[in-house]
TrEMBL record:
Coiled coil: none annotated. It is a single-pass membrane protein. It is found in: Mitochondrion inner membrane. Belongs to the UQCR10/QCR9 family. GO terms for cellular component: mitochondrial inner membrane; respiratory chain complex III. Component of the ubiquinol-cytochrome c oxidoreductase, a multisubunit transmembrane complex that is part of the mitochondrial electron transport chain which drives oxidative phosphorylation. The complex plays an important role in the uptake of multiple carbon sources present in different host niches. The keyword Oxidoreductase does not apply. It comes from Phoenix dactylifera (Date palm). InterPro entries: QCR9, QCR9_sf. It comes from the Eukaryota. This is Complex III subunit 9. Component of the ubiquinol-cytochrome c oxidoreductase (cytochrome b-c1 complex, complex III, CIII), a multisubunit enzyme composed of 3 respiratory subunits cytochrome b, cytochrome c1 and Rieske protein, 2 core protein subunits, and additional low-molecular weight protein subunits. Transmembrane segments: none annotated. Keywords: Electron transport, Membrane, Mitochondrion, Mitochondrion inner membrane, Respiratory chain, Transmembrane, Transmembrane helix, Transport.
Length: 62
């Protein structure tokens, strides 16, 4: 039994399991891409963001 046969037996034999796998994979993939791009944006814009400017990034205490 090969890898593809095993994946077929586990994931694609029943439609409900296959759809659940696809939806969960899409959700996890979206979260991973969002997290990765956010970290890349922060890395490339260090010192240029609103929070990094000392005068503008501070909130006034009440």
């Amino acid at each position: 039994m090969g890898l593809w046969d095993g994946l077929y037996r586990v994931l694609m034999r029943r439609n409900s399991v296959y759809v659940t796998f696809v939806v969960a994979g899409a959700f996890a993939g979206e979260r991973a891409v969002d997290y990765g791009l956010h970290k890349l944006w922060d890395y490339n814009n260090v010192g240029k963001k609103y929070e990094d400017i000392p005068v503008l990034g501070q909130r006034q205490s009440e």
